[in-house]
């Protein structure tokens, strides 16, 4: 476990624990406020993220930023965003279970340093890894799960919402639930 962000970033950026290190441009460690109440976690970097070294920066990232802004959240101010794997899987394939297992230690260290109140999993792969393996994202997104000290929710991946814009209202509804839950937690109502 890492005591400081500096240690974590410098070691993570040099990581060669799995084969994804061979094809990456950048290690995409994470972005945001290290004191955030909410962490968002996706599955892994895509092409734009790999090139820029930041999570969720392509079209899906823009949509995520819009939905965040609608509930007064901002990636640089009051949340932290990371992924299960920090290096891009080639051709944007799903990260393999063994790659996820190799990489998850970095995420655990990030969660430990941030100690958020809420963890949001973006998409099925992150939700299956962190909430429960058999999660049905289409039915169970927007539901709350309690794991240890954390309130957890799965959301539809913004890329899935871009592919099927009819999903936008239900996706946005989850952001409203998130805002309400954070307010409750901050007021000590739970
Ligand atoms: S994906 Fe994770 S475990 Fe694999 S090389 Fe990148 S940082 Fe290391």
UniProtKB/TrEMBL annotation:
Keywords: 4Fe-4S, DNA damage, DNA repair, Hydrolase, Iron, Iron-sulfur, Metal-binding. The keyword Manganese does not apply. Gene3D superfamilies: Uracil-DNA glycosylase-like domain. Its EC number is 3.2.2.27. It catalyses: Hydrolyzes single-stranded DNA or mismatched double-stranded DNA and polynucleotides, releasing free uracil. It comes from Ruminococcus intestinalis. Coiled coil: none annotated. Belongs to the uracil-DNA glycosylase (UDG) superfamily. Type 4 (UDGa) family. PANTHER family: TYPE-4 URACIL-DNA GLYCOSYLASE, TYPE-5 URACIL-DNA GLYCOSYLASE. The keyword Hydrolase applies. It is an enzyme of class 3 (hydrolase). This is Type-4 uracil-DNA glycosylase. Residues 29-176 form the Uracil-DNA glycosylase-like domain.
